[in-house]
Amino acid sequence: EIEVETKDAILVTQYDFTWGVLAINTNKSIYLPGETAYLQMGVVDDQGHTVCDAKLELTIRNEQSGKGARLSTEDGTIQYSDECRGDSFTSIPDYFGYAKLPDQTGVYAMELTATTDNGIHTIADQFEVRDSVPFDVERFGPTRIYPPATYEVKFKIRANEDFVGKIKEYVPESFVINDQFSIFNFQSIS
Question: N or C: which end of the chain has fewer CB within 10 A?
């Protein structure tokens, strides 16, 4: 239960977290027209155990035109990872797929549905397609983590305009960051 107090009212919202976790990550939050999105998914049951045999269906839809795509484990457009072995370390997503994005800009809504022995569960997220971006940011990291293990997260950032400043990534306070000053490797791309 979450309670938020404003000057006019107290808002109370309840969430049920009894099933587990259904996750979807994109390698970018903003794409250029015609790029291919790398979609990574994970499923964890209500006991916190990794589910490696869920049936997944992902719909991607442009919020303005309604056009989009459908991917699923049944037709093979969402693939099962060979490394999904339950509660274990892996840097490969348990489920993954690729979507060639159209030339149409806008916000794209994603809805991921998982069918497991425990029922049917759905989550929603979104990404954008823009004609241009000042900075093209791609993230490489785990979709699902096994808490005792250490994971590497990498970023590929292409600056399309001059930049002076700091690049910040925020993580939960409980995360431990190792070798934080030795992980940066900058390359100039002409």
Answer: C
CB 109 within 8 A of CB 124: yes
- CA 95 – CA 139 distance, rounded (Å): 17
User: What span, in angstroms and rounded, lies between the C-alpha atoms of 57 and 10?
Assistant: 37
The CA–CA distances, whole Å, from 75 to 42, 70, 125 equal: 18, 10, 22
DSSP, collapsed to helix, strand or coil, labels residue 124 as strand
> Average pLDDT for consecutive 10-residue bins of the chain (190 residues)?
78 65 93 96 89 96 90 98 88 94 94 92 95 91 81 86 84 74 52
- pTM of the entire predicted model: 0.79
Total residue length of the chain: 190
**What are the C-alpha distances in Å from 9 to residues 1, 2, 3, 23, 97?**
16, 14, 10, 33, 44
